[in-house]
Design brief:
Oligomer: heterodimer
Distance between the termini of chain A: 64 Å
Strand content of chain A: 25-35%
Largest sheet of chain A: 9 strands, mixed
Order of helices and strands of chain B: EHEEHEHEEEEEEEHEHEHEEH
Helix content of chain A: 25-40%
Largest interface: A-B, 76 and 88 residues
Number of strands of chain B: 15
Largest sheet of chain B: 6 strands, parallel
Structural class of chain A: alpha/beta
Radius of gyration of chain B: 22 Å
Number of helices of chain A: 7
Shape of chain A: globular
Structural class of chain B: alpha/beta
Strand order of the largest sheet of chain B: 8-4-1-2-3-9
Strand order of the largest sheet of chain A: 11-10-9-12-8-1-6-7-13
Radius of gyration of chain A: 23 Å
């Protein structure tokens, strides 16, 4: 059985900084990491491999070559192969183009199931997994919080989506695309100390447009159907303000306000 | 004339007015016709709101089979050539819209919060980086303008002109089945909807140790309890009452922000709030700059004192 985990590396948004004068992201020093939902997809694949060592896991990502050390660490925890699609001409691709690039590679490779995250913490569109489903003609479901491990075979998978409205169980014919939520318990393990320098370079494959063969106008900003015209942080205006302390006087002030506005 | 298609999800017919408001903003002053497509849904509630309702009744089309639904929507687009397609960003809508966009070779903008124009070009504004930034997106290519919007972000018109709706029931639609079956669905006890509350007593990390105090205060004010992500992630309350980019957008008359820092991903979800009162040990917390009253201090102690005072006054009033 072969599982392909399609993942994204994202900037750590908690350490995100913005240059308000130049209106650009400060990328220097910003750490890249695996998108949390996507880490769960790999975590699940590794759980399955523990049960059945014959399972082959490939991790696929489209990213700048600088992610190689991060992919190496993923190989050091038990993933069999890392495929990085990296080409300068792909920079600036929107989700529609990104899906087409990933889809072209996936159409040439074998798999029994594709595992992804549901949502990336940077772009936050959740477009790529369903779009891959469309390109590859596969069923897809986002927000998976649990996969019944016993049911996971070559024919079908039973998954649970636990959202605020309900807990819903679905059965999908395989191959399909299962998109995990970080609310699932699956986690990408840390590299063990003894493996931290393990040489895994022979298990990494880097592909460029030479292999995928898109025409220039089909990819990157040019090929995209959406374009970021402007990015900015929102500024909020503050009106006339009353500032008080959390003492009796403060309580009185708030109470008076609540009465005046008829909340009490 | 331009044509706008609104995808109406089964059991979400109530979102029609706000999705129509989105189409209104997209087409601006240009006259346009409105179409709804509803699959195995309640057509009656849509009559009068749209120029045309496309009603598809077919038991084989399941609400969770986005591959089949996308085929149907793309087929309708091939026939009617819509200029805009609007889908609610619900869990299902977020899986459906990208498929449709891929099928009809159309750009898609997710979770749009604002629509504007720059030099006659439409700009769809959406949050990115967890709401820390806003991105204004322009469409390229020939496809229709396609977007998803979260429920509660746009507002439908209060009173509406009743339209003479034409209902069409297309036959012979072609679609593939996605190989997905729903086996079981256990609905959760639906708690209240914070989007409908006039008063929200909302707690953040600063009130984690006394979060239970918010309920009696909300009661006294005729409001509901809400929370920031810091509280929800601690498991102190259901995610359904979370305010913020990863939660809900709210528009109460009064928002009481207790121990809430107010990072941009939180305040981005405060839409047309009339009054904000914040209580925070840090008077420079971002929420404070938005507030009508800033109380500097510990929110738990403040709420205790405020509750005590309210109770005292109630007792006095009753005597």
């Amino acid at each position: 059985m072969k599982l392909v985990c399609v993942v994204k590396f994202v900037p750590d948004v908690d350490r995100f900084e913005y240059d308000h004068e130049k209106h650009v992201l400060i990328r220097e020093g910003s750490r890249m990491m695996i998108n949390p939902d996507d880490g769960c997809a790999i975590g699940f694949a590794l759980e399955m491999k523990k049960r059945n060592p014959e399972i082959f896991i490939e991790v696929l990502t489209m990213a700048p070559a600088s992610v190689v050390p991060l992919v190496e660490d993923i190989l050091r925890v038990g993933v069999d192969q890392g495929t990085i699609i990296s080409d300068r001409s792909y920079a600036g691709s929107d989700s529609w183009v990104t899906s087409r690039i990933l889809g072209r590679y996936l159409a040439t490779t074998e798999y029994d199931c594709i595992l992804t995250g549901s949502q990336a913490i940077d772009g936050d569109t959740s477009h790529v997994p369903p779009q891959l489903g469309e390109i590859l003609g596969l069923g897809q479901i986002s927000g998976i919080t649990k996969v019944e491990e016993d049911s996971f075979g070559s024919e079908s998978a039973v998954v649970e989506v636990d959202d605020e409205e309900a807990v819903t169980t679905y059965e999908l014919n395989l191959p399909a695309i299962l998109s995990f939520s970080r609310k699932s318990k699956c986690r990408l393990p840390h590299v063990r100390f003894k493996d931290r320098k393990k040489d895994v370079t022979d298990r990494i494959k880097v592909l460029s447009n030479d292999e995928l063969g898109f025409a220039k106008g089909e990819v990157g900003l040019k090929g995209s159907l959406t374009k970021v015209a402007k990015a900015y942080t929102r500024k909020y205006e503050s009106g006339a303000q009353l500032r008080v302390a959390a003492d009796d006087n403060g309580v009185e002030t708030v109470l008076k306000f609540l009465k005046e506005k008829r909340f009490l | 004339m331009n044509r706008a298609l609104i995808f109406i999800e089964q059991n979400n017919e109530r979102l029609a007015p706000e999705l129509l408001a989105v189409a209104d903003q997209i087409h601006g002053p240009q006259p346009f016709e409105t179409y709804a497509v509803v699959i195995n849904g309640d057509v009656g509630s849509l009559v009068g709101q749209f120029d045309t309702v496309i009603s598809v009744e077919d038991e084989a089309l399941q609400a969770h089979d986005q591959m089949a639904l996308a085929d149907v929507v793309a087929g309708l687009h091939a026939e009617h050539q819509f200029d805009s397609i609007v889908v609610a960003a619900t869990a299902a809508g977020k899986m459906l819209a990208p498929r449709v966009a891929m099928k009809i070779n159309c750009g898609l903008v997710a979770d749009v919060t604002e629509i504007s124009r720059q030099n006659d070009k439409l700009r769809l504004v959406r949050p990115a980086y967890g709401g820390r930034m806003m991105a204004a997106i322009e469409m390229q290519g020939d496809g229709p303008v396609m977007l998803t919007v979260r429920p509660g972000v746009f507002r439908g018109p209060g009173e509406q002109h009743h339209k003479a709706t034409q209902v069409i029931e297309p036959k012979g639609l072609r679609y593939r089945l996605g190989g997905i079956r729903q086996i079981k669905r256990e609905s959760k006890q639906l708690s209240y909807d914070i989007r409908e509350a006039d008063v929200l007593v909302s707690g953040g990390g600063g009130v984690a140790r006394g979060f239970e105090l918010l309920e009696p205060l909300a009661k006294a004010l005729g409001g509901k309890v809400a929370a920031s992500r810091a509280i929800v992630d601690r498991g102190l309350i259901s995610r359904s009452v979370q305010v913020g980019q990863s939660g809900k957008t709210v528009s109460p008359r009064l928002y009481l922000a207790l121990g809430i820092h107010g990072a941009i991903q939180h305040v981005v979800a405060l839409d047309e709030v009339e009054y904000i009162i914040s209580v925070n040990t840090n008077p420079d917390a971002p929420i404070c700059s938005l507030s009508d009253i800033v109380v500097e201090g510990d929110a738990v102690i403040f709420v205790e004192k405020l509750l005590e005072k309210i109770r005292e006054e109630q007792i006095n009033a009753n005597n």
